[in-house]
Please model this.
Amino acid sequence: MYEPVRTVSEFESALLQILHCLLGRAPLSQALPLVLRYRRRPVGLSRDAAALVQDALAKGLVSLLVKQGGWKRARHLCGREVRDGRLWQRTPARQLGLQFSANSLDFLMWLTSANLTDPKIQWRSSVAAPLTLGDRLLLFLALDAVRGSAAEPTLAGKSPFADHPLCRLAFPDTFADQNAALQADLDFAPWMTGTAASILESMQDRLAERWVELERAKASIVSPQRMTALAAQQQSVLDAFLDAAHGLERRDLARFLLKAASLLLRDGCEARSWVASLDTSRLPLASRLQVYQAALTLLSQVDRLKRWQAEAQCVGYVDPEYAASQLWKSDWQQYDGDRVCRVAERVRGELIPAAATHPT
Amino acid sequence: MSRAYRIRVRESLRRVVRAGDGVSTQLQILPILPVEEFAELLARQLRSRGFQRQGDTASRRAGQTTVTVDLKTGTVHVRAEVSEVVDLQAKDERRIYDDGDPSRRKVEASMRKRLRENLEKDADRLEASLQQRVTDQLEKQLADLWRELDQATNRATAEALKQKAAQIGQIKQMSDDPEQGSLTIVLEV
Model:
């Protein structure tokens, strides 16, 4: 069927290019110059531009989630049942729909018109509707795109990014870099069900890679303050996430942590690799040990995953959470959780003998 | 008429620089026996490792490091302290041209003051360096020290288990592997 050629303005063309970059259809290097300059914002978009944005979001986000990991066969919980298959095989397509509100359009227009090198500006939606899951996913992609660039301070550390659970979970280092306040009330409960949970399911590999990257990057941290700030962000988000996953019986969504720990904690790994560049020369011993403890934040979460394993082993065949416990035990075996715990204990013991931290 | 003067000043500083650092931690004591009884078992283990008992504590000094264990609570204090006498000297020389004594005295006083300030800074730097050495040394000792205390606690715990088992029933069989950290007691009740 012949589709009419759609005509858009220069502003709308820039907006569409930015959107395509966020959706992974074009290199991010093409988007950055566009968001780092001021452009006069029009009152609204043309019908053609709006249709193209709608089309890009509808197809692009689905494609992105599939490419990120949705295509892989995986086992995840659906209610109390374990389902095996690709994302759209585990969950019917009609339940995977993403809704976008006018907030997404407003955000894209702001992204296109504002000069993101100005850290004082902030996106405040002019739309009175609450953010939908689709809106939040778009915000996540935007933060991911600008990390490490001059635009990062303008987004990170400010609402709605600062209280965006998925952003916090994937990018604790970004929030540490921007000295963002810790969020005491990060709510992961909405991410444990429905389409949001499906997004987390498809992002398992991505999240595992991110956390491996985070931990390995600690080898180049020099400042104890930086290490402590990063650890605080990690601890805060993991506490909230794991509380929600445990409470709402979606331990399968924490699989990425087990995978990351398994990749990091190999039998020959050394404790010093976490603190290789850390300059603790001016710190008293108690403070040094506290910084080391901070550096090993992920390893301390392994204890929690071990408790989950112990709980799963006590679940009987007739218990309602039997399927969930079997799935967790299967993950534990796949990622050699016993070895992970053993190595974590050894590594912690090398750096922090008996949690000696109180000064005398 | 101006005259040329060479002013030489010399200052010295003698100071005792002190550095110290310490941490405390907790032994893992299981409530198998009453506190006093377990304290005796722990004291016995620590004595065999060079600790001296003083009432409810046992302590050991090795070099600049003192380890003190509270036998009842299991709290361990580790402290290292060191002091050194530093003798620092400095000198300075300047040539001035002046027309009278007051100017010369003023310059000399200023030179001495600067030398003393520099010596104080040097002494401060030496003190900071000594502090870092003490902390580094203590950090290196901590892992081995903890392993030793952990072994002592494990042996005391094993003895406590044997005593407790003997109170419950008749011990038919016992196998104790300190290296593996395992103890198996078969009881007849």
About this structure: Chain B touches chain A at residues 21-27, 76-79, 128, 132, 135, 138-139, 142-143, 145-147, 149-150 (CB under 8 Å).
